[in-house]
Amino acid sequence: MNLHHLLTKRNHEKGPLRVGLIGAGKFGSMYLAQAGSTEGVHLAAIADLAPARAVEALRRTGWRNGQGTAASLADALAKGTTFITDDAPAMIASPGLDVIIDATGSPSAGITHVLACCRHGKHIIMVNVEADALAGPLLARRAEEAGIVYSLAYGDQPALICELVDWARACGFTVVAAGKGTKYLPVYHQSTPDTVWSHYGFTEEQLAKGDFNAKMFNSFLDGTKSAIEMAAVANATGLVPPKDGLRFPPCGADDLPRILKPRAAGGLLDAAGQVEVVSSLERDGRPVFRDLRWGVYVTFTTENSYSARCFREYGVNTDESGRYSALYRPAHLIGLELGISVASVALRGEPTGAARDFTGDVVATAKRDLLPGETLDGEGGFTVYGTLLPARKSIASGYLPIGLAHQVKVMKPITAGETITWGDVAASRQDETVKFRLEMEAAFKKEWSIENK
Question: Which one of 49, 94, 221, 269 has the lowest number of neighbouring Cβ atoms within 10 Å?
Fold first, then answer.
């Protein structure tokens, strides 16, 4: 509750925090919109493969003329301006920066950037939840060993969910479920970049004016992004995925404590302590009353009769028993809130959520029948969508992570709806991203085998 005070104090005593941003897309641009007006923060560098995009992002988000024209990072640090480059590794290696933000969305780039931060002593904030879902448990361990902070990005739903879970546990409540809302129908699993805009209802005029990416928005729609984000939450909190994947039950804010509780108590969960995503649409397409499409939630319970009585006395929404309740936030502001992570990581040394174990994994599922010789096109594409599973089930079954289901060739016929395995595709075991993921799998398989003895 005192981050602004700490930023002000830091600014007066040592000067501002010096931040480097990788990726000037939508999330990065939203952070830019606020960073310039945040006391105690100097956005010193932006790395983007297309530097012109970074220049345009500064202009679009209201930065003054002259920003982005620094000749070098040293020049930007000295003059309080912003250096733009296409060389993220060099930016990370340069002295002077306190915090790096990865807003790329590329699993392979994210792993590379985290390991570079470990070598050069830079804290890292992972907007790149794709990399976190693929290898976050091992990346977080490497960061801890290097003495840096590895953090999920506040403003994105996973970090906000982690905050709610932490609130409930710190209050002494038992967390029953946690997750987010989204727009979901079963048919969306087959959505492609060619069909995505019809589901969203955007007009051609809106698409022409906005910075919309068809694959990214399709990932939101086809369930992949939800699976990836819930894997991040599961790995950060220990809450487990449903055994056969997210169910996306229709549920509004008022019904959270009645639906998101165990079946034994009259709800829909296999057991207490799960992640789940709720849909803003009934299965027939009707809107859910007081839907949580843009929000996050936690359901919790108490065995204490006095506490349950207090729920009623203070107008807390509960189920019929009075013992299950919920807290929710109806919206999230994405990059506009990212400054919370920057301040927490740099000034408190605390992440706003980080993987602590390997609990959830996101595997590739075929959108349609696939034939040998075809090439998978990854998250949000035409060929696969992501399914969240318990990590132990995923690894034991040899399933292919969604983060590696890109530009790999199909070797065997795969039926629509079938989960893809390593043996179904020609994935190079020499690829650095593949090698890092296999190293993580081996490490946790060894730990699990020791636990089971």
Answer: 49
